[in-house]
Amino acid sequence: MSEQIINPAAQTKLAEVETLAAELGRAEAQLESGYGSLAFGLKEVADNRYWEGAYKSFGEYITHLGDTHKIGRAQIYNFLSTARTLEGDVTVEQLSAMGISKALALTSAKKGNDGAVTEATLAAALAPKVSVNDLNKLLFESGILIAPDDSSWLDLEMEFMVDDSERQVIQSAISAARHTDPVTRSDIKPFAQRKDIMLKLCESYLADHSHLVIEGETV
């Protein structure tokens, strides 16, 4: 980090974001929520280019925050993305209250449909008893993400802990499926990409092991 920061407003905002990142980094169990001020602070730093004079690039600034406060770079960029996309629809307090997972669900929805943040979807995001899966189901069933059709919601409950070797296996399989003909299109919505990849993986496995299927068994 350079010692030369000319703009006092930039210096103040960088110090504020640094403090917020430090607080969030220490409270690992609260990374899911309480991040609204940091998200909007990051947006202000980016929009006003407050990092200039202190860092060579905005990416270097993000790396500094992540390495110093033990927050993943991807997580920091997710914070920034929610603030950029949901600004005008949610307050700092609401962003903190709903948590990063539900905020990302609304962010993804709004990128495909500018009217995604309605009174109903915002209330659902803020309700503690409503999970991110419940929110996604509401977004789908209300036609916000895709037009209603004959499909129904499928929750595979696919979040789990993995070690490095297991992560490598899963990521490699996903990459292989993504690039298997017909190649998964990168210009479709993320949920549609994940669905396409999952179907390819399942079809490939069934090609060799369909004789083991127990009819009627569900996930």
How far is the first residue's CA from the last residue's CA?
A: 51 Å
Query: Number of folding domains?
Result: 2
Radius of gyration: 20 Å
Instruction: Tell how many strands the DSSP assignment holds.
Output: 0
Largest beta sheet, briefly?
Answer: none
> What level of helicity do the residues show?
55-70%
Averaged pLDDT: 84
Shape: globular
Helical run tally = 10
Q: What proportion strand? A: under 5%
One letter per element, helices H and strands E, the order comes to HHHHHHHHHH
* Class per helix and strand makeup: mainly alpha
Uncertain runs are none
Brief summary:
With 219 residues, this protein is mainly alpha-helical.
Report on this model:
- It is built from 10 helices and no strands.
- The protein has 2 domains: 8-141, no CATH class; 164-211, no CATH class.
- The model has no long low-confidence stretch (mean pLDDT 84).
- The chain has helices at 8-26, 36-48, 58-69, 73-86, 92-98, 100-112, 119-126, 132-141, 164-178, 190-209.
- Helix content is 60%, strand content 0%.
- Helix 1 (8-26) runs antiparallel to helix 2 (36-48), helix 2 crosses helix 5 (92-98) and helix 9 packs across helix 10.
- It is globular.
